[in-house]
Description:
Blueprint: H1 4-24, E1 34-37, E2 40-43, E3 51-52, H2 73-78, E4 82-83
Antiparallel strand pairs: 1-2, 3-4
Amino acid sequence: MGNVAFDNAAINLAQIHAIFKRTIGNQLEEDAVHSDFKGYKAINTSNRYFTPRDGKRDLESVSLGNDVDPHGFLFKAAGNAYVHTEDNKVYYYQKGVNKGGETL
């Protein structure tokens, strides 16, 4: 924080975020990618794997699965502060073509 390279990286990330937002629309979070923290540029990050376990909600944990967390490192990192729920699941889709050349 407070160095030119970091400040430039924060600005470039915001520009990349703006490009993605124009391309895919409102699917991106509205939160800015960078902000100010104690007078310095800061980069805001998040992930889709966990939700904070704030004590106000009774959240049911679901397994990350061996394909995502084969060694349990993410599960251990979550500790008691975070939980992986059904809402945190990320689904991946792949475009395919059948034998007739039609897109699936």
